[in-house]
Protein 1
Amino acid sequence: MSADILLANGKLPIGRELVEGCVAFRSGRICYVGKEVSSPRARERIDIDGNVILPGLIDAHVHLRDLGQASKEDFLTGTRSALSGGFTTVLDMPNSIPPTDSPENLAQKMEAARSKAVVNVGLYGAFEPSLENARDLARLGVVGFKVFTTRRQPMDGDDDSVIEKALLCARQAGVPVAFHAEDLKTIEGLELMYKASGSSSPMVFADAHPPEAESIAVARIVAICEKTKANIHFCHLSTKESLRIVIAAKTRGLPVTCEVTPHHLLLSEREVSSQGGIAVVDPPLRRGCHQHALVDGLKHDVDLIASDHAPHTLQEKVSENPWNISPGFPGLETTLPVMLTAVNHGMLTMTRLIELLAAKPAKVFGLSSKGSLSVGHDADVTVVDLERRHVIDPSEFESKAKYSPFKGFNAIGEAVKVFVAGRIVMDNGDIMAEPGSGSIVLRL
Ligand code: NCD
Ligand code: ZN
Ligand code: ZN
Ligand code: ZN
């Protein structure tokens, strides 16, 4: 049988090697991966110019802000940002307005995504206090639940018995629970103290969110996981100690996974002194010893890399009062170039990068037809030029948030073509996808 499209003259990552090869699509699925000589006949042939064909990349942690916070980002700008950065699937966090904690709110968000998104979008759900909605949200296909241990709304993340019940509920529903783990009481106490000090430095955010706040919460969640055996995932680990606790939990056989961000791997607390509020993020950028531990963890222990794309308006980033600075910054357009540069510099291998940005996120969040270049999988593909150099310039971002602590970063490598469901949707930075051409991905 013939194919619709043949991506010809490319290179495929096979083991540790890059091997000449091609990929073909039929009816939105991959129908061939291998040498060109034995490839099927195709209606259309697209020359990949010797670039590297990767499985479509998945960003398992983004905040696309649609509905009530569309001044920061929406599904169109957020998913255009994803395409520009080489991602074919993004998983959207539920701390939106309204929160994704009921079937009605989920339906409303799905509707917005369906009409605007240009890549595949999966949605996380949030628990509400009664946990009554969780089963319905799971039935409707949320890819995971998200709990902030630093928030008492919509569910009290500081109460062990509440978390235990939520984990039991998630285990029954067969859905993993992702945690933003930081200890609320530690942070509340320090915030009081630093607010009283009257400091106006943006560094106070990091002072009030010390490494221990994270490791205390990680240890607490692991202990609850020990009782419930629910699948749990730690978002954006940023400290040496919390990674150590997660590794120990894995060694004991607990169903625990974890992610790190490019900014915690490559940037340090010094960025806040040089860039101010732009570099404020939760958890904060840390000292070098934590960065080194996370980089070491990339070899075996870290499961995935996610951007934690958290756009805010510029105004919300540069407030004079440090307590009014919104933590977070966009990451969809920096993650891949920054991580390809890291591969180029020998920080990790290409094979590992593909696991961290495609295979593992697909596995953890139940996207069974994504994450690898396999026959029968969805025809989502990211083509990268490993040598192309460019300086990161946030004024060119597709995201509404046109700033980044990676501004001026000398990147080596970026996405040059992106295919979603077998159609070319990004070519050399030009986006040809129509709003609404993306699909909702469900964990079912
Ligand atoms: C995120 C946001 O703005 O929604 N901010 C951040 O600094 N990472 C929330 C979060 O992921 O913790
Ligand atoms: Zn978080
Ligand atoms: Zn986040
Ligand atoms: Zn570029």
Protein 2
Amino acid sequence: MDRLIIRGGVPLSGEIRVSGAKNAALPLMCASLLTGEQLTLSNVPHLRDVSTMLRLLAQIGVEVSLDDRLGLSLKAERLSDPVAPYDLVKTMRASILVLGPLLARRGEARVSLPGGCAIGLRPVDVHIKGLESLGAVISVEQGYIAARAKRLKGARILMDLVTVTGTENLMMAACLAEGTTVLENAAREPEVVDLAQCLSAMGARIRGAGTDLITIEGVTGLHGAAHRIMADRIETGTFLAAAAATGGEVALNGVDAAILDAVLEKLREAGARVGVVDGTISLAMSRRPSAVSVRTAPFPAFPTDMQAQVMALDAIAEGTSVITETIFENRFMHALEMQRLGADIEISGNTAIVRGVGKLQGATVMATDLRASASLVIAGLVAEGETTIERIYHLDRGYECIEEKLAQLGARIRRVH
Ligand code: EPU
């Protein structure tokens, strides 16, 4: 199994281009199920989760072609088998995103129930309840969600809690429903907006994406479109946190700073100089970071997907910070691994108290999930000596060419097979 070996202590310096966003790409790929015409996506990141989604869509009958410039064409002219099997769903929960589109277009879908995962229980009850409100008949049989509907009917749906993929699933399903659907307490994440823009280009009628009230007027059919996937705000934040932790100076190109406010604010509070000019974010850190406390919450608040990376920064910061995770109940696995590098972190329920230490020492650590592995990379970049990170297949799910990009910024990092 692949491992990453990092020799820490080099401040990151230089310029890189940010890739397309994983969490935008996955729902956008599923949107192809809503039409028999071709959907062309550009700026597609080369990631394990994208390959897994391609396998799933191909199995359902979508014709897939990739060009050499990160372009992806998807054509769901004839759907063969509206099923998302356990083998794929267990490796990638975002597979649940085929449920809404399949049900809306084919009138039936069978999707394996995702079950627990490394960061928490993550049920899908809100997806199911929402689709039932649209008229679907849903049962759970032998571990599968089996859903049927002749034609979905628009409804007013109040979602119990803010769910990103839940909002996306219901928004996609409602595009082909009869009548108007209103989603209340919808997720406001930029990836939801990106999806709505693509769906609108396909002929959907959507208002309010980016607010907590989304209105969708159903249409009888959607058509093909071309869409460029937004830049990855979490990849951006990860590289910025790495630069801040190592006392570096970097410029990240091709990003939208407006959707990173909460993260940029925390990096400034830590002492970094952050500049934004026309799609480029620059960051320079010339001293030991100050500890920053964060509380994760749905967008536009501080993202849970950046919590682990900020913990790495806090681990070597001046002072003590309090990190509160309000989205997932088990998202502190990285703290134990960071302790192996010498960090001083105390966990109590959904709160971590991080007392900054002067330095970390290289050791062997294990990646437990995607963002946890990113935080260990940051910790490894600041640690003295050599850090080995095992199970980095987690990292490959969501970071495109991470070691190449870090090496471009001067890091001493290599992958061992
Ligand atoms: N939840 C329920 N019932 C539901 C749906 C969600 O109880 O039906 C709970 C979840 O268990 C969680 C909270 O609601 O406690 C929010 O979960 P949400 O549904 O928003 O998460 P998600 O849609 O499954 C997406 C991202 C995650 C990101 C979260 C939160 C994608 C493909 N995944 O997951 O990304 O952490 O939103 O922002 O968009 C990652 O990239 O590392 C990642 C985990």
Protein 3
Amino acid sequence: MPITAVIFDLDGVIVSTDEFHYQGWQRLADEEGIPFDRHVNERLRGVSRMESLEIILERATRTYTAAQREAMATRKNGYYRELLASRLTAADILPGVDNFLAELRRCGVKTAIGSSSRNSPTILRMIGFDQTFDATADGNDITRSKPDPEVFLLAASRLGVPPMSCLVVEDAEAGVTAALAAGMRVLAVGSAAGDSRAQYRADSLAAISAATVLT
Ligand code: BG6
Ligand code: MG
């Protein structure tokens, strides 16, 4: 079955906002006195805001009510959005993205975003990518975040393409699991580049040509 559509994760695949997510969580964890580091941060890739908080709270020494958890997630999102507003520009688009997209377009392949992030529309606007993709599906559209396949199945349906004709580009273990559960093929990049479950692997989109994944 040839690939007729490519669905991209956003954070850590299209744009380096994954670093701002990390800094936002680190600030919150420091304020609360909860141990947190880049190793724990790897587990947050691809999962929703509230699920990320639950992972961080595994190391907390006190308990938090549902209302306090909600407030903490909102606080982190405020820190994250401050970083986006002050630091995010088109220069944060990751290496190889523009060329890879142009190559797909030349081959007549459709493109979409499949992201767990509720900030996805804002980020796409800020980097000038709000008209770039044929469809988008994000955290605002779904009830179950990765590793559930919902966001990728929604993106495929918005493109009008069957899942088995889609390739997903992911930097998260949860995202690779989600794509495979959707019956899609996977190109794992960045932090997920060592994931042996993916059919294709590359350090970044600059290190692989679209032709490689379309044949
Ligand atoms: C994913 C990130 O893209 O979005 C996760 O990899 C993040 O780290 C998730 O938790 C939700 O993002 P947001 O912007 O809705 O808090
Ligand atoms: Mg990601």
